[in-house]
Structure formats: C-alpha cells, structure tokens
Amino acid sequence: MKKLKEFIIEKAIFLSGSLSIIFVVLIFVFLVKEGVLFFKYVPPKDFLMGNNWYPLSTPEQFGMLPLILGSLLVTIGSMLISIPLGVACAFYIAEVVNPKFKDILKTGVELLAAIPSVVIGFVGMITLVPWVKSIFNLPTGLTALSGSIMLAFMAMPTIVSIAEDAITAVPRRYKEAALALGATHWQAMYKVIIVAAAPGIFAAVMLGVGRVIGETMAVMMITGNAAVIPHTFLEPVRTLTATIAAEMGESIRGSNHYYALFVVGIILFIITFIINFVADVFLHRIKK
Amino acid sequence: MMPKIQIKNLNLWYGKFQALIDVNTGIEEKKITSIIGPSGCGKSTLLRVLNRMNDLIEGIKTSGEIIIGKENILLPGTDLIKLRKNVGMVFQRPNPFPLSIRKNITFGLEIHSARSKDTLDEIIENSLKSVLLWDDLKDKLNSSALELTLEQQQRLCVARLLPVKPEILLMDEPCSSLDPIATGRIEELMFELKKNYTIVIVTHNMQQAARVSDDTGFMLLGKLVEFNKTEKIFTNPEKKETEDYITGRFG
Description:
The complex is a heterodimer of chains A (288) and B (251).
Chain A: H1 2-36, H2 38-41, H3 44-49, E1 53-54, E2 61-62, H4 65-96, H5 99-112, H6 117-135, H7 144-168, H8 172-180, H9 185-196, H10 198-214, H11 217-222, H12 240-247, H13 256-287
Antiparallel strand pairs in A: 1-2
Helix pairs in contact in A: 1-13, 4-7, 4-10, 5-7, 6-7, 7-10, 8-9, 10-13, 12-13
Chain B: E1 5-14, E2 17-27, E3 32-36, H1 43-49, E4 60-68, E5 71-72, H2 80-86, E6 87-90, H3 101-111, H4 120-130, H5 134-137, H6 150-159, E7 168-172, H7 180-194, E8 198-202, H8 206-212, E9 215-220, E10 223-229, H9 230-235, H10 240-246
C-alpha cells in the first residue's frame, strides 16, 4: 500500500515537472504547424526582407522588415536607457547604500515589475507622450523614443535585481584585496567587482532584453503602431508583438494574413528563446 | 634605532567588545615579526589595524597611537590610500583578482597612477622575480590568475604588492590554505623579502613562528602578553601564560 502511494506521488511529481517542457514544445509545434503553410504562398525572402506590411491591401504584402526594425529600435533604445541606469542602481544597492535601506530599495525596484504593463502604457500615454511631442516639436508623441523610455522602466527591475545578486555574490576577498592595495571604493568597484560580476550582469541584461522584446501592451499604446521602416527614434514604429496583438482579432482564420501572424510569432519565440538560453548559460556559469 | 612601527597604548573596540587591550610594542625594520596566540586573541585585529583594514567593520573604535614613519596612522585625517600603499597586506586565502596575471601586478600602479622610469614589462618581471615566479609564469602572463595553484596565487598576491613600493608587508596566516611543501617555500620567500621589507606575520602555527621570525609577540584575550626575540620566547619565556601556550598546555 505504502509502495503504491510512493509510486503515485513520484509519478505525479514527474508529470508536473515534465508538463512545463511539454507545453513549451507543444506551443512551438503548433506555431510551426500553422506558420509553415504561409511559406507556400509567400517566399521567405519577401517575408523577411520586404519593406511593406500591407496585409489587407490587394495584392497583400507581408514584408516583415518594418516590424523587425520596430522591435529592434525600441529594444535598443530601452536598453540604452536601462542598462546604465540598472547596472548603476544595482551597484548602489549592492555596494553603496546603507544596509538598513538595502532591502527597502531592492523591494521597491522589484515592485516596479508588479505594475501591469497596461498601466505603464497608460501612464506613458498621458504623461510622456505629450512631453515628447512638445519637446521635439513633433506631429505626434507616439514614437519609438516614448516606447523605449517606458520599456526601460519595465526592464529595470529584471536588470537591477539579477545584477545586484551577481554583484553581491562577488567574493568579499576581491574587494578586500583591492582596498588593501590602496584602491578607493570606486576603483574596487569598476576595476575588480564589475569584472568578477560580469557574467551575471550580462545575464541580467539579456533577461531585460527578453522582457522588452516580448512586451506588448505598453508598446502598442505608446509607439504609434505605424508599420513603416523607421529612420530615427522620433518616428512611430510598430513592433512584432504589437502586430500580432492588433491584427490577430481581425484576420480571417486560414487566410494568408492569419498564417503570417503565426510566422511573426515563431520569430518572436525564437528570439526570446535564444536570449533566455544565453542568459541561462551565463547564470549557470556564476553558480559554478 | 627607531622601530619601524611603534604601537603605544593601543585599545580597540568592536562595538562594546574590547578586542585589543593596551598594546605596546615596537616592530623592527627589515625583520620578520610574528604574532601568535589562540583563536580570538586579537592577533588578526592587531595586524589589520596596521593598515586600517578594520575600518571596513562597522562600530569600530580605537585609542592610542600607531606611529609609522613619524605619523600616527590612527588619526582620523590619515590618508588611507597612502597608508595602504606603504603597508601591503597578504590574506589568509590567496585572493588574486579574477584578471590576468599581468593585470594583477599592474593593478597597484594603475590605481595610484604611479609613474616609474621602468617600463611595465620590467616591473612585472621584477615583481615576479622577487617572488620566484618569473620562470614559471613568464610565458603565460595573459592567462587568468585563477588558473594558478594556490601557492602560486599566494606568491602572486605578494608580487602584486611590490610595484607600489611598500615598506611593510602584513601577512595574515598566509600559509593556512597551503600544503606543507608550499608552506616551506613561502617561508623561504619571506626570508628573501626580509632583505627589503619589514614583515609582520600572524600565524596559528607556532613552529612557523619559530622558524621564520626574528621577534615574536604572544597575545591572549586582547593583550600582548609577551614580546621578545623569537629565540627567547620559545626557549625561555618570561610569562607563565606564554610558556603554557608554547608547550601546548592550551590553545
């Protein structure tokens, strides 16, 4: 009897554990199954390199380049903001701030992650967008820049939290060695601690990138959603995610448009998968 | 001759706990002075106060004087950077930076933006030669210091102190993570270094103190019980506690 119970519990736990992997595989299989049909009608080259995304005009055009560039621009922009801010913040929390406030500060930063993205988008729309519009004297404030700034806020908690862990995990003896040689605290940080924590900081940045690329709601609300090839940060863009979210509802099931959106999904999936994988490799390296 | 380091009426508290009680002594130039005593007697604290590494600990308070080169280094205005440049430290566990061997040695020069008429390559060569590592490492200066054996790492930790030209080297149980053969070789290195540097070593290992040092201080419960020529301490100590400790009756 006891043996049977053990057996059932063991299998149940095994099943729960495997389920998450099975789901990932199933989702991927489903995406691919729906997506490959698309390439029967549109050659991959036109899809990946085409300049025009006009899914509803006749003839329909599915050039994904504007969407890829849109995602890329918003991601690069938000990383330019969140990497320096996030890493500096992580150093402040790990190395500088009075230990009494350390926990408060870290919890505060992590709370940022709890804000629903629609709220971030909404706040950005009301405050940041008009501000961008008037400062740069633009016809609209719904631009890649606005999206980058708001997404930087969303990437910050991930970057700060993981980078801070990495910095705190740097053995104390490195810092002692630097100080004993007459280094200032600042020199110890930027010459030794940052080098020792580099793999973790890199992983933090990758996970931040993953977060930004996959983000949908906030970008949809504040980037303007124009599927044209952007030339500067001050133009509206449309990201891969926003395209799926905005168009899936109105596409006809089984149409080329419908399949095209699945392919966009596959590409997103592959990008985030690679990013998370790389981050994981680096996080693993630290544990060793 | 004036001692290189003069300690007068030194008291030190961690919060309410008094870790050093009225320590008075003088440490001679270009000699090896070892400090022995049971765990928790304050020997590491005494060592770390000499380059103010204790400042990292919160709630620390000192009174008395430590005179190095005519200056009382316990005064609040002391230039810690200058002090630590002059008083280098080797730690219990080898702690080379996770950088290349070359970078480990040039680290001190970089942080002090020190200029020297020697080229960097000469400095690296000389530093490694002083710790007898040059022949082993000259062909792999760019590989990571963490790939070295523990003994080599500890030697490198000594070598990286030398480019900024310290006068005093503090060693906090430098051999405690090394095997006996490596320990012997580090001790030989200490004899070599004694020609140019004043060395203070804290050790758990009484035989080591007897082997390497010229002077020895015995500490117990925060007090420097006895300080004398090593020979005298180990053959004919004046205090009962010292005798009990070195004959192994406690500790």
